From TrEMBL, chain A:
It comes from the Eukaryota. The gene is LOC111290644. Residues 1-20, 66-91 are annotated as: Disordered. Keywords: Aminotransferase, Pyridoxal phosphate, Transferase. It comes from Durio zibethinus (Durian). PANTHER family: AMINOTRANSFERASE ACS12-RELATED, BIFUNCTIONAL ASPARTATE AMINOTRANSFERASE AND GLUTAMATE/ASPARTATE-PREPHENATE AMINOTRANSFERASE-RELATED. Pfam families: Aminotran_1_2 (PF00155). CDD domains: AAT_like. This is Probable aminotransferase ACS12 isoform X2.
TrEMBL record, chain B:
Belongs to the class-I pyridoxal-phosphate-dependent aminotransferase family. InterPro entries: Aminotransferase_I/II_large, Ethylene_sulfur-biosynth, NHTrfase_class1_PyrdxlP-BS, PyrdxlP-dep_Trfase, PyrdxlP-dep_Trfase_major, PyrdxlP-dep_Trfase_small. It comes from Durio zibethinus (Durian). The keyword DNA-binding does not apply. This is 1-aminocyclopropane-1-carboxylate synthase 7-like. Residues 49-428 form the Aminotransferase class I/classII large domain. Pfam families: Aminotran_1_2. GO terms for molecular function: 1-aminocyclopropane-1-carboxylate synthase activity; pyridoxal phosphate binding; transaminase activity. Keywords: Pyridoxal phosphate.
Amino acid sequence: MTLTRSIQYPNPEPEVQTRKPGRATAMRLIVPLQGVVQGRGGLIFGSLIPCALFYFLQLYLKRHRSSNSRSNPPSPSTSSPNLAEITRTSSRSNLLSRGLIGPVRISSRAMSIAKPNDSPYYIGLDKASEDPYDRISNPDGVIQLGLLENRLCFDLIAKWMSENLSDSMMGREGGDLSISGITTYQPVDGTMELKLAMAGFMSRVMGGTVSFEPSQMVLTAGATPAIETLCFCLADHGNAFLVPTPYYPGFDRDVKWRTGVELIPVHCRSTDNFILSITALDQAFNQTRKRGTKIRGILLSNPANPVGNLLSREMLYNLLDFAREKNIHIISDEIFAGTMYGNEEFVSMAEVLDSENFDKNRVHIVYGLSKDLSLPGFRVGMIYSFNENVLAAARKLTRFSSISALTQRLVVSMLLDTRFIEEYIETNKKRVQNMRDLFVAGLKTLGIRCADSSAGFCCWADMSKLIPTYSEKGELELWDKLLNVAKINVTPGSACHCIEPGWFRCCFTTLAQEDIPVVMERIRKVADTSTLCS
Amino acid sequence: MAIEIEQPSVGLSKVAVSKTHGEDSPYFAGWKAYDENPYDESDNQSGVIQMGLAENQVSFDLLEKFLEEHSEASSWGKGAPGFRENALFQDYHGLKSFRQAMANFMEQIRGGRAKFNPDRIVLTAGATAANELLTFILADPGDALLVPTPYYPGFDRDLRWRTGVKIVSIHCDSSNNFQVTPQALEAAYQCAESMNLKVRGVLITNPSNPSGATLQRSVLEEILDFATRKNIHLVSDEIYSGSTFSSPEFISIAEVLDARDYKNSERVHIVYSLSKDLGLPGFRVGTIYSYNDKVVTTARRMSSFTLISSQTQHLLACMLSNKEFTENYIKTNRERLSKRYDMIIKGLKNAGIECLKGNAGLFCWMNLSPLLEEPTREGELALWKTILNEVKINISPGSSCHCSEPGWFRVCFANMSEQTLGVALERIHKFMEQRKRKET
């Protein structure tokens, strides 16, 4: 949803002040003063009085400075949003505002978030929502391909809702969607009914090869707080997680904003189809350690967002070995596990842990219903951990992000309707695969190839041939053209921290089949003009 | 520097191992005792009666009736139009219709004496999250917030745990019914300064928890002036504003600002929730209302970590935009709370126990200092344990609320049936009789 651009983030920060102007002023007062005093009172006065004056001046300036927090040391990371930049910017306004009380201050954490969003992710979302495409009523509107939503099976869910909700809230016999019993304070980490239902659902969507324990679940209002809460549990301010690129732009917010934890990118290449290599992981680990930053874990999404590929069983073993060797954690975000298409099999971290004798205490899985059941608005997510201490802490922390009991009850009812769930899972798989095939084929006719993928709502398209210069700048120029000329909102690879320019994330699950030719035609127009110019 | 804990395996963060969650305090320990042996009217008449949880169950039937008569609130109609948008809706602005309904409801509670702009409402999953979020926004780690004592024990966790912010107490005592004084404000500020802490704001709860009294207008004016002088923020947690059941009338900080034409209002933020007034803590509905644009923007973005389910927003938008329902609810709820309050005060008085004169909230602030073996925190905790183990009632000791005077206890009266409350009062009466006999 939200995104903070981390690379080359412009940061005008005029209100912030530093000590430098103060000291210069003080010196300008003291030197002539010394001259005056020494003529009369001798060396002692000549030293004491200027020192005293200097001391009082500093005190005065200190009182009236609307300061930046002393407790936020500049972070050396290049990917952290701006805490470092804030303290480096200096301003003369300290002198001007002497004696005036400025506006009441908000924290440094808040300052970095308060800036207007100039990231392509936001600009694109805004444009798409201001002028949304509609085949009939607004055929020239912006087509939204930048939001990972799945609308393909809504008819099924809507049908279920209208059939099951009509008698719901009345507290009658058999009205098991009533509000009785759920209005009062509930266990903050979710009801046992929902945990049980989630265990069944997760097992089903992940192929039935692994089972989940309700007692190892902490439910959260979406996967977003699940990630943040895990970071609060596993790392201190200033520590870091390794994350393979390209990655979900939301991680920048979820991991870094309030925790002060850093993300260290581990770059993956198109030559490997963007699969992580242990060598690259090891390199990044060592480099970061040399800088003096402690790595606490690896953050993965599997299936991957944006690429949509899977980690093989062997890779999972290797990652577990690596984590054990370095004594770090692994967070595996498996939120797209139920959106597989094609023949490849998804292997959850949980499954691997089941089969082998690995130290389970370092593995934590994130899941949710926003993708697999298309209910992002309902806010249903979870932390699944094998570490009792993490569970104990997370259970307490999730009070800041608990799921509405009303929604828990509705979702339980839905998940327990096994006939519906079966139909939904099967139909969804088919429709997503169908849409993907059409979309990828469409791009192929334009000479745009996509990375191999087995899951998710988007394809990872290589438009490097269309960008004016092989650089981030070139990529953003193409993105701008696609948004404002072709009127298609896609996510540029730089927003996902991809090291190779020209890759774009295109979500196809908000489209209808008839829209695909429209999308391709619009891209073709821009592609033609791009190749003409380059 | 991250400390590697003694565990042989992979370490956890300081936040994870810290005790700042405060759940070892008697406030929460009593709940555990209740969970292990809960009173039940029919099945467990000798169990522990929970009087330590500020929950409102007296008006649940009104909610049920509304939903029975308005099925469109809990569904999306035939063919479910609007459902798709709702289920996909994860915009941190929140449903406009819901924000509008909340603004209207907040205005109604204040008798129309203050106006609320729906675009200044930020939604969070409960007031717990709202208070924490505001703290993240208004203060940096190591900074301090001033909070009048006695205060809600949850603040120790909500304001401090993940934020790294400190609480400095503004001491209040029974000499003036625990109202905040300018001297106490100044003393707290100086105390913070002497510890080298930067004070970023004052956080008040009005109506007060645990004392159960609304703040006088003059006190609100003083606190606002103080915050303005020091150029700090003022957070007013008004979560019990709709639970004012007798005079004096509740006065919101919004009214004080209105009277001043909203001058200097960008330092003021109000926290509200439906957990107490509407008895819906399970639904996780909280709000931040801020007069500061930057705070609104930032809070909105941060609320991504704590969004309210769109299904819940939809249902409550229907409910709260129904003026007939809300008017009737507010009025009836007040009457029932008043009746409960009278019942408990009378019952306690008969047992020889005095309470602070309260006019709001779901609890009363009881003075048991005459019963203490020694006028200390230890004496208070000993008495608390006795009451829990012998009388089998869970009440909250003042020390867990940081009260500087030992012997005060918070007793909730709205989270059980009238019959259960009667049983609790009988037990207290018997206990007091036994003590009297022991003394003679």
